[in-house]
Amino acid sequence: MSKQRTNFRALIELTAGFCLVLFVLVISVKVALAQKPIREQKAVKAIDFLNSIGVNSAISKRGESLDKTIELMKYTGIRWIRAGYEGDIPDADFIKLHKETGVKFSYGLLSGGTDIERLLKGARKLDAVGALLAFEGSNEPNNWGFKYKGIAGGKNLTWLPIAQLQKDLYAAVKSDAMLKKYPVWDLCENGAQTDNVGLQFLKIPMGAGTLMPDGTKYADFATCHNYFSHPSHPGLYDNQTWNAADPGPLCKVDGLYGNYGKTWLKKYQGYTENELLTLPRVTTETGVTLSNEINEEKQARLYLNLYLSQFKQNWSYTAVYLLRDRVDEAGNQTFGFYKPDYSPRKSAIYLHNLTTILADKSSKFNLRNMSFEIIDQPETVHTLLLQKSNGKFELVVWGEKAKGSEEVEIKLGKTYPLVRIYDPTKGTEAVQFLRNTSAVKLTTSDHPFVIEI
């Protein structure tokens, strides 16, 4: 019996020792994980984000007032307007608006326009005062067909005239000594092409098998109207603007993939999913009207998230439709930052707050890195690290939950003496100050916070 007890005691001691070693190992692993360095991330210039913020406006036509447009652009902080010769906006109005606000213009053929020489003539005047941003091709040829060189195209007809016009526009810009420095943005809704003219490419690759020749160059940037509320996916849902900005097939709306990956109408093959990730791109229309589900408050929050999601997912420029509601057409009301009487919606006020918080003018500085991470980051929480010319970091954290909220903790790479937290839905002043802190806790829902460090 004594020998058995001795063996049993030895077994117990051995087991206890093993458990102790295992416990120490587990604790060591947890400590190591806890002490894992927080990932360093490179900032983007705040001014680059601000410069991406655009809008559609008739400026001084279609019932709009030039003086009011100037006032609205100054207040919202919007940096560019999608425009063109459609509507016969006087050149002097473009120039006055630019000189008083610094606003630039994408200048395009727009709906049904085919006069390339007229477009270039107007563009030269904008270039002379530094007001030109880019050229744009036709607006939605699936809705606005036209004749080019005597041949009707677009809608459910052949798209060869559409392709030929875009090709000629590109060639005309790039052969002009004064204007060739500007990028050419593509036409939009090329996913609707009825025949494979190759408009799913910026430049048709060799062996593509398209009706237009290999090597045909259409544009420098892809162009989309990826409205984040779309008949193909209506209503409110989590990650709404984030999903609309997704460059791949996960996008539920009329996005990059359906126009440049595999066309949504005829399924013509374009770029691969990997190629789409780095394809230069812009959005020249997006937005949402008010409804029982989307009230003015929700619209305003979505518009803030929209600009952030687009920029974070590599859309160089994004224009909301519209600055002010149309008064000369039905069906396009309540998109605007402003009502027809020029009274601001909450979207105008919240955008003013965000652009004021992030305001910066200089781009001549070197970017730095900052270490941060969100512990167990939810799928509906996103970040954009910006840096101002004064050296301050502006870490934008936004939630995209259709309903409810989530608690998140942002771990910083070191202790900072002062951290300011801003909420653009509350105003332009900081809503919280943290001193000597290395972490920030937020309750995220459906709008951004700005953490200034």
What can you see in these coordinates?
- InterPro entries: GH.
- This is Glycosyl hydrolase.
- It comes from Pedobacter ginsengisoli.
- One of its GO terms (molecular function) is hydrolase activity.
- With 453 residues, the chain is an alpha/beta fold.
- It folds into 2 domains: 47-357, TIM Barrel (Alpha-Beta Barrel); 363-452, Immunoglobulin-like.
- It is built from 11 helices and 18 strands.
- The chain has helices at residues 2-34, 46-51, 66-76, 91-101, 116-128, 160-174, 240-244, 256-261, 273-277, 296-312, 346-357; strands at residues 40-42, 44-45, 53-56, 80-84, 104-110, 132-138, 146-148, 151-153, 184-185, 222-224, 281-283, 317-320, 369-374, 381-387, 393-399, 406-422, 432-444, 448-452.
- The strands form 3 sheets. Strands 1, 2, 13, 14, 15, 16, 17 and 18 form an 8-stranded mixed beta sheet that branches. It has an 8-stranded parallel beta sheet with strand order 9-6-5-4-3-12-11-10. It has a two-stranded antiparallel sheet with strand order 7-8.
- Helix 3 (66-76) runs parallel beside helix 4 and helix 10 (296-312) packs parallel to helix 11.
- The model is unreliable at 1-6 and 28-33 (pLDDT under 50).
